[in-house]
Amino acid sequence: MLTLYSFGPGANSLKPTLTLYEKGLAFEHRLLDPSKFEHHSDWYKAINPRGQVPALDDGGRIVTESTVICEYLEDAHPTEVKLRPDDPWDRAQMRVWTKWVDEYFCWCVSTIGWHRGVRHMAQALSEEEFEAHLKNIPIPEQQVKWRRAREGFPQDLLDEEMRRIGVSVRRLDDHLADHEWLAGSAYSLADICNFAIANGMEKGFADLVNKDDTPHLVRWIMEINARPKVREMFAKVPREHLGPPKAA
Amino acid sequence: MLTLYSFGPGANSLKPTLTLYEKGLAFEHRLLDPSKFEHHSDWYKAINPRGQVPALDDGGRIVTESTVICEYLEDAHPTEVKLRPDDPWDRAQMRVWTKWVDEYFCWCVSTIGWHRGVRHMAQALSEEEFEAHLKNIPIPEQQVKWRRAREGFPQDLLDEEMRRIGVSVRRLDDHLADHEWLAGSAYSLADICNFAIANGMEKGFADLVNKDDTPHLVRWIMEINARPKVREMFAKVPREHLGPPKAA
Question: What is the DSSP letter of A238?
Fold first, then answer.
């Protein structure tokens, strides 16, 4: 029995969610509500002491770290749908791409996402509520990130993160200019893990990701969105809205 | 034909070097001299455009990123020596540990290593030499790191990195208190990749890593150093000295 604990289908939570859908594996989906800080609750920290989603429960054994979960699903639950290239060199390229997402691409996009979304959640709390909440966050670096989000990220950090996003989308577009997929000749975890971050950037980062400046990246995002399992996932799994409070 | 381009057996360069030795694979070892900035030379950037070691040439196909190279060697060149657990869950734990090295443990140790070693190299250059050299470094973030090394890292950064090193060695010692190896029941890439960073910390970080405070970590470092292939590697592959100039 597989149970996935995650937020809605975006960022790191999208990676194992889409992997499970693509592979056609049955699983129970326990969606946590980030606006209620459910990932920092005691019941969830009993599953993942780091208080981070996603986590996979496979018959009582917990697997954490989104990219690790994706490879685990390939190792432990092989199906006809293979999301890793067979050729070792292509597989290495897949891992270079998934590693790059985890070490570079996801972080710059994350800061801007926090600036636009989490900041409002953090600022909506009273000083007492906020400090009480911080105590529930087990990773010191995450506590710092919450504090910075509430205070407002410094402009030079936001500028640097935007520079890195520019570098990232350029790198993706350049590669996709003469490759249909990121690693090898077929759709793989490299595509899923990068799509997890890149999807929606045509709207959220429209001056960087658009048909004129990054036509190949936009083509690839559209192609992935058109896949039957991707459509099924987005139809079934609701996305959160973490932006500023909507006007009444 | 396998050719490994690397520095001597420490940090990221140690990972694939030791993996090749442990697996008993024949390879040509092209050692680059960091004090001559060979990794930023044009001939090497033709192999790895990012100007980083290690890189593996397998019959003309280049694999980069130390952890990716290690898994590639298991995929492409299986031998009787298996450095990944067979059990998928144990293998996932191995990947959590190698990922943690790449995203956390290696960076805090690296900053202190740069503070103690690379700083002296950078400061020994004239302003003109230094600026000319910076132009050869292809990764902007690495340029920034070189500049900070020359200027001297700010004390609050050094303090934070030392805090993270403390967290890291505590985490390793706690796990090794009731596990012989980091992932599963046997020596694996999790051990090799962590050893790459932890080896020598009994000397370089003696007030954090010692028989009183981290007995299990010290036991594990000694056990790995006693392995025949580790001894063979250290006997054959010279280590660099990047510290301050030695007194005459």
Answer: P
